[in-house]
Structures are given as C-alpha cells and as structure tokens.
Amino acid sequence: MAREKPEAAAEAEATPELSYREQLDFLNPIAQPLASRKLTRKLYKCIRKATKHKQVRRGVKEVQKFINKGEKGITVLAGDTLPIDVYCHIPVMCEDRSLPYAYVPSKTDLGAAAGSKRPTCVIMIKPHEE
Question: Over the stretch 33-52, which tens digit does the pLDDT of each residue have?
Fold first, then answer.
C-alpha cells in the first residue's frame, strides 16, 4: 500500500499539463472576454506578484464581498468552472461597478498562480502602490 502512493504521485507529476489550446476545449459558454495566451501568462505573473504583497482576494464569497464593499481591482475568473451558477453573477457585478475582468482557461492554473494547491475559480487583484 505504501508503495502505491509514491508511484501514483510520480505518475501524476509525469502527466503533461494541458496546453492553452487543449484547455480551450473545457470552457464554459459564458467565458467572454477570454484572455489570450500572452495575456493569460501576464495575469498569472501579476497574480504571483500580488500574492507576495498580500494584494489578492480569492474565492467567490470573498471577491463578492469586497466588490460589494466598493474595493477596486482586476477580477480574474476561470473559464472551466462548473456549474456556471456558482460565479455567473460576478461579471455583472464588475460591469455595474465598472471594474475590469477577464477569463482564463484553467481554474487549476489560477489557483497555482495564487500559491494554493486548490483550484480557484475567482481571484481579485487589488492595486498596489507600485
């Protein structure tokens, strides 16, 4: 039994991650505007940097709360989240408050960029002095 766990972990690490093109197959119909490959990389880099400065809000509940409070920032949503009802109200809230938002193809990559092992479907990047 103990032997199976390391083998399974090694096997999971050996499986290649999906490319940007392959991730597009799993998108929701509401995932518009979808970030391009280049913009997706920039958003992940920005999220990593903002996480170091504690300038990130993650999760539907937390992001929704701070949008309602009037906090400014960029909202990044994962395009492969199911069911859609979980977060379909967030873009409407962003448009009402004229906040920028964009979809990226993968919630797993979004969570990893925020320094979490868990997938995340919504992240808000707060502005920093720099």
Answer: 888 999 999 999 999 999 99
The percent of the chain in helix, strand and coil, each rounded to the nearest 5, is 45, 15, 40
| pTM of the complete model | 0.81
> Rounded to a whole number, what is the distance in angstroms from the first to the last CA of the chain?
51
The pair of three-digit structure tokens given for residue 127, joined into one six-digit string: 């502005």
Total of domains in the chain = 1
Residue 48 burial by Cβ neighbours in a 10 Å radius (0-12, 13-18, 19+) = middle
Asked, for residue 7, whether it belongs to a domain, the answer is no
Residue 14 lies in a domain: no
What range defines the domain where residue 103 resides? 28-125
